[in-house]
Amino acid sequence: MSADKYLFYLSVALLGVSVVFSLSLPVFTVLYFNYDEYHFFIRQSIVVLVGIILMWLISQLNPDRAFKWLGFGLFFFCLVAMGLMHILPASMVTEAGGARRWIRLPGFSLAPVEFFKIGFIYFLAWSFARKIDEGHKKSISEELKILTPYLLLFLVVVYLIAVMQNDLGQVVILALTLVTMALFAGTSMRIFAMGILCASILAFLAIISSEHRITRIKSWWGNVQDMVLSLLPKSWESVLRVADAPEPYQISHSLNAIKHGDMFGQGLGAGIFKLGFLSEVHTDFVLAGIAEEIGVFGILCIVVLILCLLFRIFRISARSENKVYHLFSLGVGLIISFSFLMNSYGITSITPIKGIAVPFLSYGGSSILAVCISIGMVLMVSKKAKL
């Protein structure tokens, strides 16, 4: 049986969009650091080419033989790498905001967390398929007994990512993926609700324990409080209004870039907010930069591509008789969905901004290679699904 060619073509199309905008959007960074004008374009093109080759090669493997080794390999190797990177010498690790997130290799750096997410999804799929039985109704105490080891593992993940790498956004995505996969694996809605509650409490504790995160929340609230408070009773305003909230500089320019793009955009290369106003326009704010240049219509076309891709992934999941394949494909679709939504909501000020890469579109080798590997594994699974 052959792999799902439509999923492959959709992935290549989205990767092609990222290559185009890697030439257009980083112009300010190129000028500021005196890079060659094709610096980001060449690097992104190479990464995308390697990613497409990897995706195709993985899709050709036999899932009954290679799937387990690849999944467990990513899980254990990246878990160990995230633990060791904090004791590696500074020459081998790249820091961002005081957090060690990238391991330096000859010519490039890799973020283990991006690849760990794939291994984490596989581990959950493999373990849930063995331990959670959909046909037998259990008491809540029995379900909690089954899920306790996963919660302990997740606390380790929280420590390695949220504490050691100061990256709460990735933890939120993994938490949402964990509880949703557990629900589809056969747990009850009570456990799902408890999982969401626990994740919310952990997120709250992580926020109040960090001055940096509190500042981000205040900045976001300062941008939306007028609209929200206008819908609430006047008596609430004195309690909820924050007078000293820092100006949401990046979000304001992100919203202005989207507005400036209007329906059909200013044209490829003609955006102005990428000229120093949006410092991460080719990474975290790539959707705002794209919206300014090709407009709302262009963004809608990209959203359609994403939705079609997710439809193919969830279709493969639904039609996979093997429960591990079913849950893994579901997990990959969830990770892509949650990442895209968190970034989209962040740049439009619906939620606080978190440094989450847009799958397929953001500049960066680790995120591109990781999403290509995950799609390659889903393509491998698709050969066994009744499409």
List keywords for this structure.
387 residues, mainly alpha, three-stranded antiparallel sheet, 14 helices, globular
**How many structural domains in the coordinates?**
1
Strand order of the largest sheet: 1-2-3
Structural class: mainly alpha
Number of H/I helices: 14
- Mean pLDDT across residues: 85
User: What is the number of strand segments?
Assistant: 3
Helix content: 55-70%
CA radius of gyration: 21 Å
Q: Strand portion, in percent?
A: under 5%
Largest sheet: 3 strands, antiparallel
Run of helices and strands: HHHHEEEHHHHHHHHHH
How widely separated are the two ends?
10 Å
Shape: globular
- pLDDT below 50 for ≥5 consecutive residues: which ranges? none
Keywords: Cell cycle, Cell division, Cell shape, Glycosyltransferase, Membrane, Peptidoglycan synthesis, Transferase, Transmembrane, Transmembrane helix
Subcellular location: Membrane
GO molecular function: lipid-linked peptidoglycan transporter activity; peptidoglycan glycosyltransferase activity
InterPro entries: FtsW/RodA
